[in-house]
Amino acid sequence: MLLNRAASEILFTGYNAQFQAAFLAMPKFYQEIATEMPSGTTTELYHWIDQLPGMREWIGARQKNNPSLRDYTLTNKPFEDTIALDKFKVKDDTHGAFAQTVWAFGQAVAKWPDEQIAAVVEAGTTDLCFDGQYYFDTDHPLSLDDASLSTYSNLLVGATYDLSADPIGTWAKAQAAMGAFKGASGKPLGLRADTLMVPPALERYALQVAQANIVPQTFGDVTGTANVAAASVSNIYMGKMKVVVNPYLTTTTAAYALCTARGIKPFVWQLREAPVFVNLVDPTLPNCFNEREFIYGAEGRGVAGYSFPFLCIRLSPS
Hints:
By secondary structure, the protein is of the alpha+beta class. It has a single domain, classed as Alpha-Beta Complex (phage-related protein like fold). The protein contains eight helices and 15 strands. The strands form five sheets. The chain has a five-stranded mixed sheet with strand order 7-15-12-8-11, with helices on one face. Strand 9 (about 215-220) and strand 10 form a beta hairpin. Helix 1 (about 5-25) packs across helix 4. The N and C termini lie far apart (about 60 Å).
C-alpha cells in the first residue's frame, strides 16, 4: 500500500467510519440516571428552583410563594484519548487488524460519560451540591432561607442498610426514606425510588429485589441477637423497579436508590462537545516522517454534576 497524503486521508475516512459505528453501538447507561444538558460555553450557570409547596384550597386572596433560585455552576473539562500506529505495520495490514483496533478505540471513548457520572456518584460524600451540603449528607436543609426548619438525610449508613445482608429490607428502607422527604412547606414531595444502582459485586442482590418472586424472610429471637426461624414470602417489589449495574463504581458495598421519573434525574451530564475522531496522518508531518507513526485521537468537552439530592439515596453498611 502506497501511503501518500491522499491514501492516508482515505484510510482515515475508513477508520473514522469504524470509530463512529463502534461509538454508537456501545451500550451506555448514563441516560438512565443523569439528565443530559447541552452547553454552549465554558461554564454553565444553573438556577435550580427551591422546593415548591404545591396546590392549596383557594380561600380568600391568593397566597404568593417566592421560590428561591439556587445557583449551581458546572465548568466543562477537556478530555482526549490517543493511539499511535506504526505506519509500516499499517501498510502491511492485509487483514484489517488495525480497523478492529480503531473499533475498540471507539468503544472505549463511548464509555466517557458513564465513567464521569460514576466518578461524581462516588464523590458525592465529599462534593457539594446546590444547597451547600455534600450531595450525600445527613443534614440537607428543607429551606435555605429558614434555618429553623428541619433537615433530611439522603445518606443512610449502618448494618440495617446492607444490601447484601437484607436486599428486600434495605430497599424497603430506602423507599420509606425517600417517600418521607418533604419540601420547605412541610408537604411531602411525593417521591418514589424507581431505580437501584449497584456495583457488580451487589448485582445478585439487586436483581433479587427486582426479579425474585419469592424471597426468604428471617425471624430473630426475642432479644434480637440471633435468627431462630426463616420463611419465604412474596416479593412485593418484583417488576416495580429497574436495576443499573455500574461497573465503574469502586466501592463494592454501597448501593443507590434513585428517583428518575421527575423532570430531571439525580445527576447531570453537561455536554459541550461530543467526541470527534481526529488524525495526524500526513506523511510529511514530523510524527510520520521522524517517528513513522500515524496518530489518531478523540477529543471532547463536558462535565458531570449533581441535580437535587432528594432524588438519590446512598445506602451503605459503613
